[in-house]
Amino acid sequence: xxxxxxxxxxxxxxxxxxxxxxxxxxxxxxxxxxxxxxxxxxxxxxxxxxxxxxxxxxxxxxxxxxxxxxxxxxxxxxxxxxxxxxxxxxxxxxxx
Length: 96
Hints:
The chain has strands at about 1-5, 10-15, 20-25, 30-35, 40-45, 50-55, 60-65, 70-75.
Protein backbone atom coordinates (compact mmCIF):
# COMPACT_ATOMS: atom_id res chain seq x y z
CA UNK A 1 0.00 0.00 0.00
CA UNK A 2 1.04 3.58 -0.56
CA UNK A 3 -0.34 6.59 1.28
CA UNK A 4 -0.72 9.82 -0.69
CA UNK A 5 1.18 12.90 0.48
CA UNK A 6 -2.13 14.56 1.42
CA UNK A 7 -2.94 11.48 3.54
CA UNK A 8 -6.53 11.47 2.25
CA UNK A 9 -6.04 8.61 -0.22
CA UNK A 10 -4.26 5.31 -0.28
CA UNK A 11 -3.61 2.87 -3.11
CA UNK A 12 -3.10 -0.89 -2.84
CA UNK A 13 -1.81 -3.63 -5.16
CA UNK A 14 -3.47 -7.05 -5.31
CA UNK A 15 -2.68 -10.60 -6.42
CA UNK A 16 -5.91 -10.71 -8.45
CA UNK A 17 -4.30 -8.24 -10.91
CA UNK A 18 -6.26 -5.28 -9.53
CA UNK A 19 -5.45 -1.92 -7.95
CA UNK A 20 -7.68 -0.31 -5.32
CA UNK A 21 -7.97 3.39 -4.53
CA UNK A 22 -9.06 4.08 -0.92
CA UNK A 23 -10.43 7.07 0.96
CA UNK A 24 -8.57 7.18 4.28
CA UNK A 25 -11.29 9.17 6.04
CA UNK A 26 -14.20 6.85 5.24
CA UNK A 27 -11.96 3.74 4.95
CA UNK A 28 -13.90 2.78 1.84
CA UNK A 29 -12.69 1.73 -1.57
CA UNK A 30 -13.31 4.61 -4.00
CA UNK A 31 -12.47 2.62 -7.10
CA UNK A 32 -11.16 -0.77 -8.14
CA UNK A 33 -9.09 -0.94 -11.32
CA UNK A 34 -10.01 -4.53 -12.21
CA UNK A 35 -7.60 -6.47 -14.41
CA UNK A 36 -5.13 -3.60 -14.15
CA UNK A 37 -2.38 -5.99 -15.26
CA UNK A 38 -2.20 -9.50 -16.69
CA UNK A 39 -0.42 -10.85 -13.58
CA UNK A 40 0.03 -9.95 -9.91
CA UNK A 41 0.46 -6.22 -9.26
CA UNK A 42 3.71 -5.89 -7.34
CA UNK A 43 3.89 -2.19 -6.49
CA UNK A 44 1.83 1.01 -6.79
CA UNK A 45 2.72 4.63 -6.06
CA UNK A 46 1.06 8.02 -6.37
CA UNK A 47 2.82 10.72 -8.34
CA UNK A 48 3.69 13.75 -6.16
CA UNK A 49 0.73 15.74 -7.57
CA UNK A 50 -1.58 12.79 -6.72
CA UNK A 51 -3.20 12.88 -10.16
CA UNK A 52 -1.72 9.58 -11.31
CA UNK A 53 -0.85 6.13 -10.02
CA UNK A 54 2.16 4.23 -11.35
CA UNK A 55 2.12 0.43 -11.11
CA UNK A 56 4.40 -2.52 -11.83
CA UNK A 57 3.46 -6.13 -12.28
CA UNK A 58 4.78 -9.64 -12.76
CA UNK A 59 3.51 -9.23 -16.35
CA UNK A 60 6.70 -7.14 -16.84
CA UNK A 61 4.93 -3.86 -17.54
CA UNK A 62 4.84 -0.44 -15.92
CA UNK A 63 1.55 1.44 -16.22
CA UNK A 64 0.46 4.99 -15.51
CA UNK A 65 -3.16 5.46 -14.40
CA UNK A 66 -5.13 8.70 -14.50
CA UNK A 67 -7.08 8.82 -11.23
CA UNK A 68 -9.66 11.32 -12.49
CA UNK A 69 -10.42 9.43 -15.72
CA UNK A 70 -9.91 6.08 -13.99
CA UNK A 71 -8.04 4.55 -16.89
CA UNK A 72 -4.54 3.65 -18.00
CA UNK A 73 -2.86 6.45 -19.95
CA UNK A 74 0.46 4.80 -20.74
CA UNK A 75 2.03 1.35 -20.68
CA UNK A 76 5.77 0.72 -20.76
CA UNK A 77 7.21 -2.63 -21.77
CA UNK A 78 10.42 -3.88 -23.35
CA UNK A 79 11.76 -7.30 -24.31
CA UNK A 80 14.66 -6.87 -21.87
CA UNK A 81 12.63 -5.58 -18.90
CA UNK A 82 11.78 -8.29 -16.40
CA UNK A 83 10.44 -7.74 -12.93
CA UNK A 84 12.72 -9.96 -10.91
CA UNK A 85 10.61 -10.25 -7.78
CA UNK A 86 7.17 -9.50 -6.38
CA UNK A 87 8.96 -7.53 -3.67
CA UNK A 88 10.55 -5.11 -6.16
CA UNK A 89 9.63 -1.53 -5.26
CA UNK A 90 8.74 1.32 -7.60
CA UNK A 91 10.04 4.86 -7.08
CA UNK A 92 8.57 8.07 -8.53
CA UNK A 93 10.84 11.12 -8.64
CA UNK A 94 9.75 14.30 -6.82
CA UNK A 95 9.13 15.99 -10.18
CA UNK A 96 7.09 12.98 -11.42
